[in-house]
Amino acid sequence: MIIYVGNLSYSVTVLELTYIFKKFGYVSQVKLFVDNFLRQFTGYGLIDMPNNKEALAAMKALKESSLNGRKIKLHQA
């Protein structure tokens, strides 16, 4: 399952997101998106967790959480 993660702080890193989601299961890939024109992080990314049960557990546990002072938004992509 691919999880959309939005409203991220501009200082968040791939390693940080991997560490957070890895607590719930295997994370095969983390992508953070950058605006090509401005060369800035856009504030959202995608987490790929192949096991749907683990992905749903992560989404449920992190639904109302904050990261670096911002309340993150999670949706199935």
Task: List the main descriptive attributes of the protein structure presented here.
alpha+beta, 77 residues, two-stranded antiparallel sheet, single chain, 2 helices, four-stranded antiparallel beta sheet, Alpha-Beta Plaits
Short description:
This protein has 2 helices and 6 strands; from the N terminus they run βαββαβββ. It has 77 residues and is an alpha+beta fold. It has a 4-stranded antiparallel sheet with strand order 2-3-1-6, covered by helices on one side.
Explained architecture:
- With 77 residues, this protein is α+β, with helices and mostly antiparallel strands.
- The protein has a single domain (2-76), classed as Alpha-Beta Plaits (2-Layer Sandwich).
- Helices cover 26% and strands 38% of the residues.
- The chain has two helices and six strands.
- The chain has helices at residues 14-22, 52-62, and strands at 2-6, 29-35, 40-48, 66-67, 70-71, 73-76.
- The strands form two sheets. The protein has a four-stranded antiparallel sheet, covered by helices on one side. The chain has a two-stranded antiparallel ribbon with strand order 4-5.
- A hairpin with a 4-residue loop joins strand 2 and strand 3.
- The radius of gyration is 12 Å and the shape is globular.
- The relative contact order is 0.35.
